[in-house]
Amino acid sequence: MGYLKALGNPDGPHALAKDLLGTHLAAKLGLPTFDYALIEITDIDDLPFAKSGKAEPGPAFVTRSEDGSTWDKDMRMLEKIDNPDAISGLVAIDTWLRNMDRYFLPLNRVNLDNVFFSKESTGDGKLSLRAMDFSHAIQYGGELTICDNSIDKVTDDAVYGLFPEFREKITRDAIRHFASILGELTRHDIDDAVGLIPREWQLEHNVGTALVDYLVRRAKFVAESIESRLFDPPQLTMDLSDGGDS
Predict the structure, then answer these.
(1) Is residue 121 part of a domain?
(2) Which of 5, 25, 40, 75 has the most CB atoms within 10 Å of its CB?
(3) In whole angstroms, what is the distance from residue 177 CA to residue 181 CA?
């Protein structure tokens, strides 16, 4: 059994591109993901979407389902995971990809359905956190464009995916680990990842080129800044225009 995302979905073909790309890059960072593949939907398939409509012919993104559940904010689930550093990794990749569809207060976005705890763990009675669902990363609720490579998006210093319950679970060492991986990614790595996106998902060449450039520049920025954003207090400043008197 698996979860299928196909052409004809209401979020458009770029939602598939972002989910494939995000899942691949999460694995590149060493995060646990669902097993995934691309399959071909044909004219003779009759695959209805959960809400309305049917899958259209063409390549589709499918992930293998696992025994487990989404989060209900029960802190005991966080205590039971066998991969606690994955919490830091999830914040790191959500920040890199500007993924607003897990936790992002400026949009009042709190999506517990995008936090999944698998029972397919190596430890008895343990859970395993999975990195999943990136269909609204990079550009929330819209198609990818060359504008996604703008400097304000590359240097966006917000932290994404940081549920309040996550804060006490992230560690400086784990964040440094994932920042180090981000800092070592090459343009070739990113170009190969974007190259996985099928042409039927309508990512134009100039947009794909801009996307590679964005991901490379954004990875470097996040690698250099995320630790201080999470752990170092903001510097206090004093207005000395009146000699420091108030």
Answers:
(1) yes
(2) 25
(3) 7
70 in Cβ contact with 116 (< 8 Å): yes
* 198 occurs within a structural domain: yes
Tokens of 151: 């400097």
**Model pTM score:** 0.91
Angle between helices 187-194 and 205-231 (to 10 degrees): 120
Using DSSP, how many helices (H) and how many strands (E) does the chain show? 8, 8
Mind listing the pLDDT tens digit for each residue in 152-174?
A: 999 999 999 999 999 999 999 99
Give residue 246's pLDDT band: very low, low, confident or very high (50, 70, 90). Answer: very low
How far, in Å, CA of 31 to CA of 85, rounded?
9
What token pair was written down for 117? 């705890």
Which uninterrupted H or E stretch holds 164?
Answer: helix 164-167
218 part of a folded domain: yes
Residues making up the chain, counted from first to last: 246
Q: How confident is the model at residue 112 (pLDDT cuts 50, 70, 90)?
A: very high
If phi > 0 it is left, if psi is from -120 to 50 it is alpha, else beta; for residue 97 that is alpha
pLDDT of residue 141: 79
The answer for residues whose C-beta is within 8 angstroms of residue 39's C-beta and 6 or more apart is 4, 59, 60, 62
Find the CATH number of the domain harbouring 108. 1.10.1070
Q: How far apart are the first and last CA of the chain?
A: 67
| HEC letters along 208-242 | HHHHHHHHHHHHHHHHHHHHHHHHCCCCCCCCCCC
- Has residue 236 got a pLDDT over 70? no
Above 80 in pLDDT, residue 113? yes
Q: Does any domain span residue 36?
A: no
